[in-house]
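Need a sequence for this fold. Nothing fancy.
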């Protein structure tokens, strides 16, 4: 009787890989954190150094969550742009994680082998995190509206795709 030995399953990415990729992405954006308010940042009523409109008027605007986040930043950090850039960076990195999670679920639904799907999702999430087309996400305070929109879109898609993967 021949003995069959069970082959170990191929290993997925090491557990330290995703945090290391996020750290590299964060380091890529370090120069933007020290940047001043620029372009559209300077036209925002919430960032006006002469005073900001009352919260009630901001909440009646077309983008209340965006304005609420800027109002909150101003209350906590004053008119310092660095902490606002850090908030944008954190949201952008969360979006990269969500992107990887969504991709992993889509690849699983498409029948891609689990290990291969995990590697692809992590790699594509890392590309998303450092892609030059997304530098506005951290460089401009007013780009928080896009970062927040993407966060809620990816979150909804992640939930929609289910947790069976």
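Here you go.
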């Amino acid at each position: 009787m021949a003995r069959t030995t069970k082959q170990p399953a191929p290993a997925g990415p090491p557990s330290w890989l995703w945090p290391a990729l996020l750290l590299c992405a964060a380091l890529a954006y370090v120069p933007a954190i020290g940047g001043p308010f620029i372009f559209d940042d300077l036209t925002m009523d919430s960032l006006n150094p002469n005073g900001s409109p009352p919260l009630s008027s901001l909440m009646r605007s077309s983008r209340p969550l965006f304005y609420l986040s800027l109002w909150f930043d101003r209350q906590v950090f004053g008119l310092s742009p660095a902490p606002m850039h850090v908030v944008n960076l954190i949201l952008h990195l969360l979006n990269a994680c969500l992107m990887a999670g969504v991709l992993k679920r889509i690849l699983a639904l498409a029948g891609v082998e689990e290990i291969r799907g995990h590697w692809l999702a992590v790699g594509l999430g890392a590309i998303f995190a450092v892609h030059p087309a997304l530098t506005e996400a951290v460089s401009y305070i007013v780009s928080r509206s896009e970062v927040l929109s993407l966060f809620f879109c990816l979150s909804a898609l992640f939930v929609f795709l289910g947790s069976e993967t």
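For context: The mean pLDDT is 82.
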